[in-house]
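**User:**
Everyone, produce one record:

**Assistant:**
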Amino acid sequence: MITTREAAPEDAHAMSDLITPILESWKSARRRDPEHMLANYIQNPDNIRCTVAIEDNGRLVGFQSLILPKTANVYDTPDGWGEIGTYVALDAGRGGIGRAMFASTLEAARSAGIKTIEASIGDDNHKGLGYYSAIGFATYATEPGLIRKRFDVD
């Protein structure tokens, strides 16, 4: 069974441990240290909610971040749109983890008055593209190496 809750500072190390093999599989040089997890996901000033997914045994198996970009908008997200990022442990996919986290994220988006959520996904990230399509995101723009999907919050 998976439970979700808002991320806390003490989750930073587990989030770093989770994202490191994902970024390595992408051959990404992005930061993944616990300090970055804390600053960029848990305590980001643009944060709406960072949700973690926890197995019954206490293992963190996913996290999902929703921000309203103001201070730094690396994906050029349109004004007023939320930007989402989702990470699930490589050995834990296909168990409803992403859907469980998105339910929490969607609730936070509604509470914050966000009308549209954007996901910017690498065009070679087939799992990510499939996940976002499965939960209702639709492609609205493409650029070299990147597919941008949107979800209109009701």
